[in-house]
Amino acid sequence: MGAVPAEISGVGSTQQKLRVSPGFDPMKAQVGPDEYFLLSRIDGVQPLRDVMLATGLPVERAVAIVMKLRSIGALLLPGETAPPKAAPAPAPTPPPKPAQPQLDTSLPDPTADELAALSEDNVLDGPTRRRILALGRLVAKHDPWLLLGVPQGSNHQALKRAYFKLSKDIHPDRFYGKQLGSFGERLSTVFEAASRAYERLTSPDPRVSGTHRAVTPDQPQSPQEYAAELFDRAIGLEVSGDALEAMKLFAAAIRLDSQTKYLRRAASCALAANQPRTALEYAKKAQAASPSDPSLARLLAIAFKATGKLADAEEVLVMAMALKSENDALGAELRSELAEVRRLLGGS
User: Fold this and answer.
1) Which domain holds residue 65?
2) CATH number, domain with residue 236
3) Does residue 84 belong to any structural domain of this protein?
4) Treating both helix axes as pointing N-terminal to C-terminal, what angle do 276-289 and 294-306 enclose, rounded to 10 degrees?
5) pLDDT digits (tens, 9 = 90+) for 153-188
6) CA pair distance 84, 70, nearest whole angstrom
7) Same domain, yes or no, for 297 and 333?
8) Is residue 97 part of a domain?
9) For residues 340 and 304, what is the distance between their CA atoms, to the nearest angstrom?
10) Average pLDDT over residues 250-265
11) Which residue, of 136, 169, 202, is where some domain finishes?
């Protein structure tokens, strides 16, 4: 059997009289039969050496059990009221993250075409021009990871986040109506390449090359989602007082998704921007989409009045007042507008 050692690592002398920790639950700790048998012999009266011999277990096995029971908080040394807390295991060192590709906008060794583009007369500032040209260089490398600006092997979430950001920054509609020179075509090229790169890296079909299929529906923004973003940005510009710039974004949003609320807000903004013809165009479309909405009829009448078409405004207002509405305030506004139009007609 072998002799019981004088000391056990983590416990100390085997002549000590150990006790079972009051809070220890052998069922929760899932101790084995031998471990429970030895634990049941610990009474705080007999020295540990005698307990180990009394179990009849091989010494090596008994020593291992004592060490385990001590490590899981089952045994108390003389004078202890609670088992010592085990030192927390050191946190595993996370693997180093792959280096994030950096877009080189310094354009080393620029080509004649790039130099000409940098000196063009357009609305883009220098950093924006350099970024678009640097992205164009990446398109030529046919490396989808580099183009999206993510480490090779990045997960779907990282790819989606990268594509979402890039598509917002370089989407051609962001620059709608601006004088871009050759950068208009460059932006379209980069955006289409980024869309193909995202599809290629996220498609479940390994055969997809990204050159013959449209972007899959799981991309970050559908046309409707992008239209909603443009609409929100347009409202922000309108509220800040930049109605002309807001009109450009409203127009882009409506081209993607001609919702009635987009048309309504764009018509109101056009009136504020002193663009009555544009307002009339949007108001006509909005009213045609919801002909039973008296508020849209009122908006159309205001647009008619702004363009000098008072007879048309009167006709629309009369029609609007015949529509069912429980909005007393709107009814009062329609009557006021009609009175004003008739006053103008009488004075003309």
Assistant:
1) 7-76
2) 1.25.40.10
3) no
4) 160
5) 888 888 888 888 887 788 777 777 788 888 888 888
6) 9
7) yes
8) no
9) 13
10) 90
11) 202
How far is residue 298's CA from residue 131's CA, in Å, rounded to a whole number? 47
- Cα(240)–Cα(244) distance, integer angstroms: 11
Task: Give the number of domains in the chain.
Answer: 4
Residue 341 Cα distances to 185, 197, 347, angstroms: 48, 57, 10
Which tokens go with 52? 């180990």
Query: In this model, does residue 53 exceed pLDDT 80?
Result: yes
Measured at the CA of 316, the angle between CA 312 and CA 319, to 5 degrees, comes to: 140
Q: Is the pLDDT of residue 263 over 90?
A: yes
Helix (H) or strand (E) segment spanning residue 76: strand 75-76
What's the pTM?
0.40
pLDDT at 300 over 80: yes
pLDDT at 163: 85
Question: What would the two tokens of residue 287 be?
Answer: 């009213």
In a domain, 102, yes or no: no
Do the beta carbons of residue 321 and residue 335 sit within 8 Å? Answer: yes
Q: Tell me if residue 343 falls in helix, strand or coil.
A: helix
Task: Assess whether 275 and 309 both reside in one domain.
Answer: no
- Hey, what are 207's tokens? 């055969």
Which CATH number characterizes residue 134's domain? 1.10.287.110
